[in-house]
Amino acid sequence: MRSLGNERERKERFQRLFRDYFASMCAFATRYLEDGEEAKDVAHDVFCYLWEHPAELERVEDERNYLYVVTRNKCLDILRRRSARSRYEQSVSSEEKEEPAFFSEEVDREELYRLLDEGIRQLPEQGRKIILLKLEGLKNQEIADRLHVALSTVNTLKNNAYKTLRAFLEKRYRAILLFLTKIKFA
């Protein structure tokens, strides 16, 4: 086993290893990964690790063999991650192909909520408050009590707000009207 000695010796050893092996480690990694840039990243990572963990080299008797084994292992890790990612992407892709209607429905539903929110934000303040409380599930009398207004005021403002919302949504998204007819606002 070799001893690292002082800091100067450690730096000189590291520089020698880098100078002697970096290019060949890149070429070696490229044969695994088929990507020169990624191979350089692997070789760089190996040397960064050795710089940050100098004690690793103390345990090593054959530096050349150690460098190639570590490089190979990092390449194999990358290939495993690629394979897992590829399997995941294929799985997601096949699910999307099997469920395009689900995706389309979810997009439509989100667009509806976005437009509904936009329309509600444009309502007059009292009408907006009433609609939001109604969407929380409160009854008209509970809304009247909370806002300290008459029940007839809640009914009038609610109906006006619904008319305004329908007109707003009709301008923006005609197909939404089918969905709105299924929602019971009363």
- The CATH architecture of the largest domain is Orthogonal Bundle
Helix/strand/pairing class, anyone? mainly alpha
Low-confidence stretches: none
Helix content: over 70%
- The total strand number stands at 0
Tell me the β content: under 5%
Describe this structure in words.
The protein is mainly alpha-helical and 186 residues long. It has two domains: 7-97, Rna Polymerase Sigma Factor, Chain: A; 100-182, Winged helix-like DNA-binding domain superfamily/Winged helix DNA-binding domain (Arc Repressor Mutant, subunit A, Orthogonal Bundle). It is built from nine helices and no strands. The longest helix has 36 residues, at 63-98. It is rod-shaped, with a radius of gyration of 33 Å. The N and C termini lie far apart (83 Å).
Concise account of the structure shown:
The chain contains nine helices and no strands. It is mostly helical and 186 residues long.
SSE layout:
Elements: H1 7-33, H2 36-52, H3 55-58, H4 63-98, H5 100-121, H6 125-135, H7 140-147, H8 151-172, H9 176-182
Helix pairs in contact: 1-2, 1-4, 2-4, 5-8, 6-8, 7-8
Keywords:
single chain, 186 residues, mainly alpha, Rna Polymerase Sigma Factor, Chain: A, Arc Repressor Mutant, subunit A, 2 domains, 9 helices
